[in-house]
């Protein structure tokens, strides 16, 4: 419970933040990089807007988008890895394709795709993040599922003529619970990194009126004037990624990797 509580608290604040914010996201509190005060706990940003309100408004988009990407990557990888473990011929092609896709760095792939098709927006970001994130995870699932695929109960199910869907969903995946949860946590951290990078580079993706990565980039020039404008969103990104990964790993019954 102690491991899960920080993740629940941070996720709840990120989702409910717009309702908890003391002011609108563009509320002015004074001059640029205004010092923290009683009316503005974290001071002002580069144009004098309330950092606290921006911080509370800027987490939900990052959290939701990262969770969607992590869920899709884990699901696709689990299906591909399980199929590769069950069927040797198909598995060889899946593993070769995965090895080829892993040669392209995720950030470079996202830059190429989203700069070429800027109108793709959030849907394009999700698509390319899933495509570049699935291969490595699929190899992990294939390795984890290979031993289960040779187990007696799986061989018996295949001898009965069970269909591939039954073998994957009823025989393999229930026995890969630890791998599923661990990969889900790791893919969430990777998704946070990707989404934050996209926001930091100002690539076209909708994350709400404000988001933490953009706050870091826009306020970096005033870090000596009001450090909270940069450190607060940076710390929020790190805490969100680490706490959620720790919580998911705790459910898996394993130590964080």
Automatic annotation (TrEMBL):
Main localization of the protein? membrane
Q: Which domain of life is it from?
A: Bacteria
Would you identify the family this protein belongs to, as annotated?
A: Belongs to the binding-protein-dependent transport system permease family.
Identify the Gene3D superfamilies for this entry.
MetI-like
Cellular localisation: Cell membrane
Which sequence ranges are marked TM in the entry? 60-88, 100-117, 123-142, 191-210, 230-252
Q: Which residue stretches, if any, does this entry annotate as coiled coil?
A: none
User: Domain ABC transmembrane type-1: where?
Assistant: 63-248
Q: Which InterPro entries match?
A: BP-dependent_transpt_permease (IPR050366), MetI-like (IPR000515), MetI-like_sf (IPR035906)
Q: Which Pfam families match?
A: BPD_transp_1
Q: What is this protein called?
A: ABC transporter permease subunit
- Assigned keywords, A-Z: Cell membrane, Membrane, Transmembrane, Transmembrane helix, Transport
How is this protein positioned relative to the membrane?
Multi-pass membrane protein
């Amino acid at each position: 419970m102690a491991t899960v509580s920080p993740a629940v608290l941070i996720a709840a604040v990120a989702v409910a933040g717009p309702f908890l914010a003391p002011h609108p996201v563009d509320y002015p509190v004074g001059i640029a990089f205004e010092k923290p005060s009683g009316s503005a706990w974290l001071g002002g940003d580069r144009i004098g807007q309330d950092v606290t309100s921006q911080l509370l408004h800027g987490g939900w988009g990052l959290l939701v988008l990262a969770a969607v990407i992590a869920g899709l990557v884990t699901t696709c990888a689990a299906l591909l890895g399980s199929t590769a473990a069950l069927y040797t011929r198909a598995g060889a092609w899946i593993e070769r394709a995965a090895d080829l896709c892993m040669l392209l760095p995720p950030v470079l792939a996202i830059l190429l795709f989203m700069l070429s098709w800027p109108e793709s927006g959030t849907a394009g970001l999700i698509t390319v993040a899933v495509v570049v994130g699935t291969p490595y995870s699929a190899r992990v699932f294939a390795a984890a599922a290979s031993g289960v695929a040779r187990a007696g109960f799986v061989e018996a199910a295949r001898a009965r003529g069970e269909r591939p869907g039954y073998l994957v969903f009823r025989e393999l995946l229930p026995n890969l619970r630890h791998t599923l949860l661990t990969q889900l946590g790791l893919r969430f951290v990777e998704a946070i990194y990707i989404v934050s990078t996209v926001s930091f580079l100002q690539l076209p993706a909708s994350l709400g009126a404000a988001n933490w990565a953009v706050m870091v980039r826009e306020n970096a020039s005033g870090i000596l004037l009001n450090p909270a404008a940069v450190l607060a969103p940076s710390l929020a990104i790190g805490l969100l990624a680490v706490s959620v990964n720790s919580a998911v790993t705790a459910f898996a019954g394993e130590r964080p990797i």
